[in-house]
């Protein structure tokens, strides 16, 4: 009988293809069979959000496609989707649509991360009721 795989929700945008997130997912997979679902919130960047709240979709699609390619190439079982521009709504939507045991949140480092200024890892835990692991990437995705 095949061992049941844990379902892990992963939330990231600019750090979705980062080395730090890849290593965190490898470590998690080493703990036991796991499948991952990556949600990339379509958060607008820079001043574009003033003109259009949905301006982040193209960047999110780029981040998602690059990250999925990189993570699958590393042997991880992962799929993904574009999420709500609000990262808290995105994680809550995904948690409501699937059945997950835990959440991994990837952010930029604390000096530049808007998500950390909003205390997103704690909000993700509160929104989902699941344990959250925070991964802090030193660099943006190079995918």
Brief synopsis:
41% of the residues lie in helices and 23% in strands.
Give me the count of strands: 5
Rg of Cα set: 14 Å
Global structural class: alpha/beta
Strand order of the largest sheet: 3-2-1-4-5
Task: Give the overall shape.
Answer: globular
Major β-sheet annotation:
5 strands, parallel
Percent of residues in helices comes to 40-55%
Alpha-carbon distance between the two ends: 37 Å
**Percent of sequence in beta strands:** 15-25%
Order of helices and strands: EHEHHEHEHHE
Show unreliable segments: none
Overall mean pLDDT stands at: 89
**DSSP helix count?**
6
What does this protein structure show overall?
- Helix 4 packs parallel to helix 6.
- The protein has 143 residues and is α/β, with parallel strands linked by helices.
- It has six helices and five strands.
